[in-house]
Structures are given as C-alpha cells and as structure tokens.
Amino acid sequence: MAGLQKVTSDLPDVCPMTAAPPDQPGSVEVLAPGVTVARSELRYSFVRAAGPGGQAVNKVSSACQLRVPVTAIQGLRPTAAARLRRRAGQRLTRGDEILIHARTHRSQLDNRRACLQRLRELVVASLPEPVPRKVVKPTRAMIRRQREAKKRLAEKKRRRREGRGDWE
Length: 168
Prior knowledge:
This protein is of the alpha+beta class and 168 residues long.
C-alpha cells in the first residue's frame, strides 16, 4: 500500500490490556470461552494512518495491524477453524494468517485494542455450528397461491402478445 510505512512498536514491557508481560511463557489471550491464543503468536505492527489528522498525520504511526496464524488459535474444532477461514475472507493471507487493521482511533493503544476486539468478534461468530435447514413439504395453500400467481403472469403476457390490453 502506498503511503503506509511500517514502524516498530514502542509499547511498554507490560501488556496494557491485561497488565501481564506480553511474551511470558503461558501468557495467553482469551478470545472466547475455551478459545485462546498465545500472546507470543499475536504480531502487532504500527503504520501511518491515512486521512485527516492535522500536523501529526504524517509523523505518528497510530494505525495497527494484527497478524495471527489460524493454527495458533487453540480450542477451535476443525469445523470452526474452517468457518473462521471463510468468515475472514480477504483478511486471510496465503500464509494462513488473519490480518486485521484498525485505524479508527488516534492512539496506538486504542487501535491495538480495536484489533483484538475484531479478532474476538470474528472467532465468536465462527464458533456456533450452523443449523441445518429442515426440508418441509409445501402446504396446499402455498401451492394454490403459486398456481394463481403463475396464471396471472401468464395472462398478462398473453395480453401483451395480442398487442392490446393491460400492461400492469
């Protein structure tokens, strides 16, 4: 992307969202009940955001990009992981990573939180199994209404062919 420049993170040694060291062994981020990801697998990068921002817009790298490998998310059933990949759409890279952008806030911390929240929403949405559609027999009334509608349409077309009549 033109205009975006990758910059290293100046975040503190303690994760401000949980007040825990970010890469400490056993340090995990809970995405949903029973679904976690190791913080060491969450890769944040900060780039310059586009749009208005006054004098600081070209100086401050506040837009956040979060990359997380789908395989690093623990607690997902294989079917849920497949749904997650489908739901991610264009956010899924060729390397099987989910790439999430956030540039709505003016601070790195808020954009970082927004990225993590979007990841959580994506994971939560992919957890429930889809309810299979129940095949039902059409009712007599439904069949009658379909036939009547078909007759009305046929009558309208017949009148058009004759070159006179109602154009409804």
